[in-house]
Amino acid sequence: MLPAARWARVAAVVVLTAGATAAPTLRVGGADAKTSDAARAARVVQPTTDFSRAEAFEAMQGGAATSTKMVNADAFSHFAANMPLAREIDFKVGNGFFRRLWVSAPASTRSSDGLGPLFNARSCQRCHLKDGRGHPPKANWPDDSAVSMFLRLSIPPQTEAERKALADHRLSVVPEPAYGVQLQDFAIQGIAPEGRMHITYSEETVTLADGTAVSLRRPVYKITDLGYGPLHPQVMTSPRVANPMIGLGLLEMIDEADIRSGADPDDRDGDGISGRVQMTWDREAGRAVLGRFGWKAGEPTVRQQSAHAFSGDIGISTPPAPAHWGDCTAAQTACRTAPDGGTTPDAANPTADGMEASEKVLSLVTFYAQNLAVPQRRDVDAPQVLAGKKAFYESGCTSCHRPKFVTRRDPAQKEKSFQLIWPYSDMLLHDMGEGLADHRPEGLADGREWRTPPLWGIGLTKTVNGHTFFLHDGRARNLLEAILWHGGEAAAARDTVKTMTTKDREALLAFLNSL
Questions:
Q1: CA-based angle 47:261:452, to the nearest 5?
Q2: Domain check: are 183 and 218 in the same one?
Q3: How far apart are CA 260 and CA 280, in angstroms?
Q4: Which of 227, 301, 406, 483 is the most buried (most CB within 10 A)?
Q5: Contact, 271 vs 262, CB < 8 A?
Q6: First vs last Cα of the chain: how many Å apart?
Q7: Which residues lie across from 26 on neighbouring strands?
Q8: Which residues are CB-neighbours of 403 under 8 A, at least 6 positions away?
C-alpha cells in the first residue's frame, strides 16, 4: 500500500456530510483556511483501513457527476448528473457527431464526407460501441473484421533529428515509413487497404493454490495482405482495443501535481512499485505536458485524443490534426491525392474552416467525451464485496490502482470541480512484466510499461458491451485471467491472488464487478 506521503497532495475540500450513496458536498475555504482544507482533503483520499462498511460517497464514483440512472446496456452513455440544463443540448449534438457515419468525398452530404482514404472505422461509435470497451475479433479476416481493435506501428529512430524529436517529446514514436503509426485495414474505393491484422493464440495453464486451473491465451500477431510493400525490417507493433469513454473529463481535471505525487521512478520507498509519469506533446499548447489518456498515456487532453482518433481511425481532418489524408504516408501517393471533404467558406457556410470535421464539430465531440458519466457503483455494502475490497487493498493492488482523487478547482467547469472521484488508477506508467510487453516504446514508456487503466465501470463491461475481454489487446477473457497476466511491478499482488482461498478470490472478483 502506498505510504501516506504519496497521497497527501490534493487540491480541494470535501466535507463529508452524507452517506455512501450521496454525492459529496464541496466547499472552498478562504485564504486562511487553505492549509486546513488541504489537510482535510488529504485525509479523504487516504486509503481506508476499515472494511466493515462502505466509505462515505463510495458509490458515487464520479462525485456529483455520477450517473444514478438504471443499469442497462446504456449505462456508459449518460451525461454527468450535475450538468447544467443549458449544456445538455451540446452533449446530445456531440453524441450525434460521435455516432456519425462518415462517407467518402465528394458526396452530397458535405458535412459528413471526407472518410479515409484509409481508415479503421466509419464512426467513433464503431470502436467505442455504446461508449464502452473494444474487443479482439472473433476470427481473422475475412471471417471477422477487427473493428474496435488495431495495430500501432513504429520503428526505432534512424537519424539524429528523430532522436532529438523523441528526446524533446515532439514525437512519441517514429512512424513506419510506408504505413505510418497505425495499420488501417479499410480504404475508400480506388485505394488499397494497408493490410490485415492476423492473430493466433496458444493456451497455457496456471494452477492456483486451491487447485483451480486457469487457462491463459497468449496472442501472436502478424500482418498479412500488405498493400504498400514490405514493412521496415525493424518495425514494432502494438495491439490496442478501444478504451471505455466514461469519466474522461474527470480524469482530465485531476491536478497534475496530484498525479506526480504518486510517481516513484527509483522506488525510493522500497515497495517494489516504480510509477513514472508520461510526457507528450500538446500540439495546441506547443510544449511537452503530462500524458493522461490512452494505453501508454500518450495523449495529454481529451480534445487532442479526439482529434488524433478522427485522423488515425477515420481519416478525418480537424484543426489540431489538419492533414486531409489522415495517416497516409508520403509513400502512399494515391491516398495523399484522393478527394477530401474539407469545407471552404462560402455563402451557405461562411464559418467553414477548411476541415472535414470543423472546430465546432470537434468541440462538441470533445464536450461529449468529457461529460460521459461514470455509473453509480452497486452493492457497496454487501459483505462479500467488502471482503473483496479488503483483499484488493491488502494484496497491494492499490499501489497502482489508486482508489481516490479530488479534482482541481476550475470555475469554468463547475460540474467537475472539487469532486471526490474513485477511478482506481494512479494515471502513471508501470512495468507490467514480459508477459504483457509489446516491446514498442512510446514517449517515455518502454516496451514493458503501461498506464494503470481506471477500473471504474469495469463490472458493467458485459452489461454494456456483451463481453468480458480485458487488457490492452483483449487477451484476458475475464477478470481473473487479467489479474494472472500481471507481472513486473504487479507480480507480488498477482502472486497473492494466486495463493488466496476460493472464498477470498471470489470476494475479490465480486468487489471488482461492483465497480
A1: 70
A2: yes
A3: 15
A4: 406
A5: no
A6: 20
A7: 14
A8: 45, 47, 422, 424
- Closest by CA position to 402, among listed 249, 266, 240, 260: 260
SS3 244: coil
Instruction: Identify whether 267 is part of a domain.
Output: no
Which of these three, 317, 336, 370, is where a domain ends? 370
Whether residues 353 and 431 fall in one domain: no
Cα dihedral 424, 430, 434, 437 sign: positive
Domain containing 60 equals: 4-66+374-438+452-514
Nearest to 326 by CA among 341, 346, 348: 341
Of 187, 225, 240, 266, the residue nearest 473 (C-alpha): 240
User: Is the same domain home to 155 and 9?
Assistant: no
Amino acid at the residue 385:
V
Q: Quote the number of domains for the chain.
A: 2
Per-residue pLDDT of the chain (515 residues; tens, 9 = 90+): 444 434 333 333 344 333 344 555 444 333 344 555 566 667 889 899 999 999 999 999 999 999 999 999 999 999 999 999 999 999 999 999 999 999 999 887 767 889 999 999 999 999 999 999 999 999 999 998 888 999 999 999 999 999 999 999 999 999 999 999 999 999 999 999 999 999 999 999 999 999 999 999 999 999 999 999 999 999 999 999 999 999 999 999 999 999 999 999 999 999 999 999 999 999 999 999 999 999 999 999 999 999 999 999 999 999 999 999 999 999 999 999 999 988 776 656 666 788 999 999 999 999 999 999 999 999 999 999 999 999 999 999 999 999 999 999 898 899 999 999 999 999 999 999 999 999 999 999 999 999 999 999 999 999 999 999 999 999 999 999 999 999 999 999 999 999 999 999 999 999 999 99
Contacts of 270 (CB under 8 A, 6+ apart): none
Asked whether residue 125 is domain-assigned, the answer is: yes
Q: Is residue 299 part of a domain?
A: yes
User: Residues 409, 477: one domain?
Assistant: yes
Distance between CA atoms of 311 and 322, rounded to whole angstroms?
A: 8
Residues 155 and 302 in one domain: yes
User: Cα separation of 318 and 339, whole Å?
Assistant: 16
* β-bridge pairing 213-224 and 196-207: antiparallel
Please report how the helices 302-309 and 359-370 are oriented relative to each other, as an axis angle in degrees rounded to 10: 120
Written as nine digits, the cell of 255 is: 491536478
Q: The whole model's pTM is what? A: 0.92
Beta strands in 4-43 (DSSP E): 14-15, 25-26
* Residue 347, amino acid: A
Q: Residue 264: inside a domain, yes or no?
A: no
* Phi-psi label, residue 294: left if phi above 0, alpha if psi -120 to 50, beta otherwise: left
Q: Which is it for strands 236-241 and 149-154: parallel, antiparallel or unpaired?
A: antiparallel
Final residue in a domain of this structure, among 370, 387, 414:
370
